[in-house]
Amino acid sequence: MDRIRTFRAASMPEALALVKREFGGNAVILGTRAVQPDGIGRLVRREWVEITASAGGASPGGAGRGRGAEPPAAPQRNVALPEHVHRYYQRLVENDVAHEIAERLARSVLGPAGAPPRNESQTRRRLQQLIARTLPPCETLSLAEGRATRIALLGPAGGGKTTTLAKLAAHFWLKLRRPVAIISLDLFRLAAHEQMRRYGEIIGVPVHTVGTASDVSVALKATADAALVLIDTPGVSPGDSERLAHVSGLLDALSPDGRHLVLPGTMADRARQRCVEAFNRLAPTHVVLTRLDEAVGFGVVLNALDSLRLKLSYLTTGQRVPGDIIPACSDRLAELVLHATSA
């Protein structure tokens, strides 16, 4: 049975290094939090970073901590590949690309006749091009001329919708000087609504609330002069069909030009698939992957996108507003997945 452990360190990179040392490239991040020090610790530091992780996608209710036991060895696979190609197969796996995807890519590099690349440089070039072609189309926000472009962000609670929306609002208004307005549908949680209102004040953009269908026409009229209208939806559990139906009705009335599904890049495969199936009823057009600064390796992007045939718009790598957001680009993503460099 897969083990779950909690790691504590002074910074996120140090905590992630502990996770990778213990569980290797198969680690799954189950949660992160900042922990206030107690006792004399308050005199020397502000807080610790704590990460809970498992060795292979265990759920929190599925295993104990197993302290003192040897960490499980990473699954070994006998993959018959030429040396230059096998080296890059290993690099993909170490960067948290699933074994099946890594092997499929490595074998594709050989070509239909099984002729290996002549050298390491050719292997790297072929593999990077192949990864880029494997990724779904990338498409960031583009604004229509002469009317407001309306974009909705949807997804599960804690996925990073509100922070991502604030990053986009700050980018288009503070950097590009395009008029931005926000419509908030999240009236279920007072804290979420207050957070969005506060973001609006800081960035300098108006925030309008919509709770019922009768509010829609008022909000659309109030935001008609904006170049970009960002719609913040409540975090909904995949099993909450009633709330999903309510959000779906409001979105249909608002008629957004795009619906971006916001998912944590650290989400386990089964949980991600369940979210995708649930949110399909809201007709997402794009996907945003968040919290990639918490991922053990950048290969989780490739794993997530392998089963999502949605256009990729953005990646986020932290909580800073308006920073820590990357416009999607297949060539850049291929480089990150292959070379394990930071974004």
Proportion of residues in extended strands: 15-25%
Roughly what percent helix? 25-40%
The global form is globular
Strand order of the largest sheet: 6-5-7-4-8-9-10-11
Look at the helices and sheets and give the structural class. Answer: alpha/beta
Number of domains: 3
Q: How many DSSP E strands? A: 11
Q: What is Rg?
A: 22 Å
Mean pLDDT: 79
Just give the CATH class of the largest domain.
Alpha Beta
**What letter string, H or E per element, gives the SSE order?**
EHEEHHHEHEHEHEHEHEHEEH
> Ranges with pLDDT <50 over ≥5 residues?
38-45, 57-74
- N-end to C-end Cα span: 34 Å
Largest β-sheet summary: 8 strands, mixed
**In DSSP terms, counting alpha (H) and pi (I) runs of 4 or more, how many helices?**
11
CATH superfamily of the largest domain: P-loop containing nucleotide triphosphate hydrolases
CATH architecture label of the largest domain: 3-Layer(aba) Sandwich
The name of the CATH topology of the largest domain is: Rossmann fold
